[in-house]
Amino acid sequence: MALHDINVALQFEKVMVIKDGAVLGVGAPEQVLTGALIQEAFDVAIEVRKAEHGRTLRTRNGSRGSELYLASWSGGKDSCFAVHKAMQAGMAVTGLLNCVSQENGRVSFHGVDARLIQAQAILMGIPLLQKATTPDRYAEEFKEGVRTLAGGAAISGMVFGDIYLDEHLAWVEGVCADIGIKAVEPLWGLNTSELIRGFVDAGFRSVIIAGKADCIDREWIGKTVDHAFIEYLEKRPDVDPCGERGEYHTLVVGGPLFKGSIEITSSEVVERNGYRFLDVKTYQVIARSAGGRRWRAAEAGPKRFHDRKRTT
Question: What is the domain-level CATH number for residue 104?
Fold first, then answer.
């Protein structure tokens, strides 16, 4: 199997680097994919650093003076579209921070299986850190996660997907000020009706994985965010089109940032604390090779709300 993304190659147990028909190295990624070898093979200068979970992360340094950014990543459409717009503006997003509830091992606030976020990161080719958090220490644990993900690199700022809630902006700016980085909000102040249409029209695919029972009808849980869903929302004036007030949450399963897609193969809708959640039982990760061919990279089975935490 030929791969042309170093971050994706890091997910395999064994890799081989070839240049002009000659094998430059073969073995475990952390042994083979050194800065010197990648410089020789691809003429790309990179930085090699370690995350707290022991995996080697590699990010492109780019030209001298280039700025590096991290992103707060929920796995949903807003954080995804924010990263997309940041990259379109020329920002180098080199790491994703995903917060996971220490209590149930699922993504904080969204209730998504943490492994689905890992699949997204693999398809994006961007290093991911999943940080276990608690309600009482969330801010401090978030800042710990940022520092760990940065790994000593000079990070200029962090990308967030907030749109108009002032209390969210104040929290983000306060956290970033404590760390000494900029808060970047590419979606801030934009019209939410235009935003969701722009997200769909850009080619992103997302699935509705949670919704307030009094805001989103049960039949929409598990459905794709498309123009039909947008028309449904337009008939509900009390629901923000982007769900900015928590009316619903999504999981991005494909689009311009992804070298493949996530296909949910079985699931059920469960109700909890006034929300309906899509409990994903099985799914497939379909990666796309450089030549456009698709291959099944992984298939995962059930993981319930009460399962142990996953922070790798």
Answer: 3.40.50.620
Is the CA virtual torsion 242, 244, 247, 252 positive or negative?
positive
Query: What single string gives the DSSP state of each residue in 31-59?
Result: HH--HHHHHHHH---EEEEE-TTS-EEEE
CA distance 130 to 112: 13
Q: What is the pLDDT of residue 288?
A: 75
Q: How far apart are CA 76 and CA 211, in angstroms?
A: 13
Write out pLDDT tens, residues 32-77. 677 666 656 655 555 555 444 444 444 444 433 468 999 999 999 9
Domain annotation covers residue 311:
no
Domain-located, residue 307: no
Q: For residues 284 and 262, what is the distance between their CA atoms, to the nearest angstrom?
A: 6
- Residue 310 inside a domain? The answer is no
Q: What is the pTM of this model?
A: 0.76
Residue with more model confidence, 7 or 140: 140
Cα-to-chain-centroid distance, residue 58: 17
Number of domains in the chain: 2
As given in the structure block, the two tokens for residue 289 are: 């090779």
Shared domain for 38 and 171, answered yes or no, is no
* Distance between CA atoms of residues 141 and 155, nearest Å: 18
Asked if 30 and 164 sit in the same domain, the reply is no
Give bridge partners of residue 294 from the DSSP assignment: 288
Q: How far apart are CA 134 and CA 4, in angstroms?
A: 38
> Which structural domain, as residue segments, surrounds residue 141?
45-300
